[in-house]
Amino acid sequence: MPRLSWSILLILTLLLAAAGCSRQEEAKTEHPKATEKLRARVVVPDNVKGKWRAVKIAVRDKESNTEDIYTVNIGYEFVVAGSQLRLKVENFLPAFIMDGTKMTSASNETRNPAVQIIVTEGGAEIFEGWLFSLYPGTHAFEHQRYNFSLVDFIPAGKKG
User: Fold this and answer.
1) What single string gives the DSSP state of each residue in the chain?
2) Total domain count for the chain?
3) Which of 1, 20, 83, 109 lies in the 20 to 30 Å Cα band around 132?
4) Which N-terminal stretch is annotated as signal sequence (predicted)?
């Protein structure tokens, strides 16, 4: 009888374990976002919205040792001359701060200017991140031929 009890106990344990695995698999398929990395969100405060028209981005060509400066309106993009690189200016935050997963601006004063960019090459996205005016090396875009940096920012209503 004791031998039979151990066998029954072993079988019940295996059945419960199998049922538990099955429920875990169901949970994984039902909730795929639970395992995804939390994505930061950008919040442009009302006191910043519409106050900035454009940014100036320097593009340095490491091969020719030249630099061109592009003035790009916020929300627009440009193609780097002689390349397949396309750079889109997403957002400008004059006083960039990060609070958990939220990126925003502490004020409308240019205390820590940053521009959010998306870079594509040949139609494929190769970079999404930030260029910082005061800290150009922070999370800098790495490309074999080009470097980008934020060199100026233009308020709304101002030309040039």
Assistant:
1) -HHHHHHHHHHHHHHHHHHHHHHHHHHHHH-GGGGSPPPPEE---TTTTTSEEEEEEEEEETTTTEEEEEEEETT-EEEPTTSSEEEEEEEEETBEEEETTEEEES-SS-SB-EEEEEEEETTEEEEEEEEESS-TTTT----SSEEEEEEEEEETT---
2) 2
3) 83
4) 1-27
For 53-79, how does the pLDDT look when each residue is reduced to its tens digit (9 = 90+)?
A: 999 999 999 999 999 999 999 999 999
In the numeric block, the tokens 């919205």 are attached to 49
Q: Are residues 52 and 25 in the same domain?
A: no
Mean pLDDT for 104-116 is: 97
Structural domain including 9 reads: 2-34
